[in-house]
């Protein structure tokens, strides 16, 4: 069973990574850790994701239509 990318939940993650090759960028693991910390602090999913830098605000605008 192959893991799915933790960011897009769509593409398979690359070897030894939680991310697919499309989502991956240097420092994403640090941003993701910050994102999870913000979630535990009570931030909404979108606020934690955007403010941590893990995801761009434009990603949510596209899916909000
Ligand atoms: Zn991905």
Please give a structural write-up.
By secondary structure, the protein is mostly helical. It has a domain at about 30-65. Helices cover about 45% and strands about 0% of the residues. Helix 1 (about 30-40) runs antiparallel to helix 2. It starts with about 25 loop residues before the first helix and ends with a helix. The model has no long low-confidence stretch (mean pLDDT about 90). It binds zinc ion. Zinc ion binds next to loops.
How much of the sequence lies in strands comes to: under 5%
- Give the total of beta strands: 0
Mean pLDDT: 91
Question: H/E element string?
Answer: HHH
Bound molecules: zinc ion
User: What count of helical segments does DSSP give?
Assistant: 3
What percentage of residues falls in helices of 4 or more residues? 40-55%
Structural class: mainly alpha
Low-confidence stretches: none
* Measured distance between first and last alpha carbons: 33 Å
Radius of gyration: 12 Å
Question: Main β-sheet: number of strands, strand sense, barrel status?
Answer: none
Shape: globular
């Amino acid at each position: 069973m192959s893991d799915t990318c933790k960011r897009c939940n769509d593409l398979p993650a690359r070897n030894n990574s939680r991310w697919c090759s499309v989502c991956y960028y240097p420092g994403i693991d640090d941003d993701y850790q910050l994102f999870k910390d913000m979630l535990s602090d009570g931030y909404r999913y979108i606020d934690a994701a955007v403010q941590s830098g893990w995801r761009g605000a434009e990603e949510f605008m596209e899916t909000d239509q």
